[in-house]
Design brief:
By secondary structure, the chain is an alpha+beta fold. The chain has six helices and nine strands. The strands form three sheets. A five-stranded mixed β-sheet has the order 1-5-3-8-2, with helices on one face. The chain has a two-stranded antiparallel ribbon with strand order 4-9. Strand 6 and strand 7 form a beta hairpin. The protein is globular and about 65 Å long.
């Protein structure tokens, strides 16, 4: 297998409609991978989740927020040696290293946050209710199975308290690609609901 592979969807800025793999291949060709920092989003104050994420969630954390150190890797498949210590990290051939958007080498699955060219929008949760349901289900690791309700609420409050900035790239992308088809679908659905339908029942 050849070419560049992204483990998650992210949008180059300011051209949010562009594909990230060609962007990485062109701009970071000398390197085995591009590590893209998270940009964590809060709930936007929603108690229940809203149906569409991109147009409805724009409150994000400051670039330097601690969780934004996490990365997702966009890798040149031909230069991957093996998986690393977690799903966001790889080992590369000849001891080469992934770089961040500034072309600074990355050690492991974390890198000082940088969002000047590219960011991965990480929607931690869409609402308080959704977050508490996830906590009740437990995580994939044993450590995640013993989080108290108080700890969970404190974590959720932290996400929202830290989400003090407006990140509108997702909204811009929605308006470019999806807003008109979505609105057309909603209008068609409303018309369908207003039209009487033959149920096929015989009286």
């Amino acid at each position: 297998m050849e070419g560049w592979l992204g483990v998650a969807v992210a949008a180059p800025r300011p051209h949010a409609s562009s594909s990230l793999a060609p962007f990485a291949a062109q701009e970071y060709e000398p390197y085995p991978a591009l590590g893209v920092n998270w940009r964590v989003f809060g709930t936007g104050g929603n108690v229940q989740p809203l149906p569409s994420v991109l147009p409805n969630y724009v409150r994000c954390t400051k670039s330097g927020y601690k969780l934004n150190r996490h990365i997702k890797s966009i890798v040149n498949v031909a230069r991957v040696e093996s998986l690393g210590g977690n799903p966001h990290q790889f080992y590369y051939k000849n001891g080469s290293k992934a770089v961040n958007e500034l072309k600074v080498e990355i050690e492991g699955a974390f890198s000082p946050p940088s969002h000047t060219r590219v960011a991965l929008h990480h929607y931690q949760t869409r609402s308080a209710a959704e977050y508490l349901r996830k906590v009740a289900r437990g995580r994939g690791s044993a450590a995640g199975l013993h989080v108290s309700l108080g700890q969970s609420l404190a974590t959720l409050q932290e996400y929202d308290a830290e989400s003090t900035e407006q990140c509108t790239e997702g909204l811009d992308l929605w308006q470019q690609c999806c807003a008109k088809p979505y609105n057309d679908w909603q209008l068609a659905l409303q018309r369908h609901r207003r039209v009487p339908h033959d149920t096929g029942d015989v009286v």
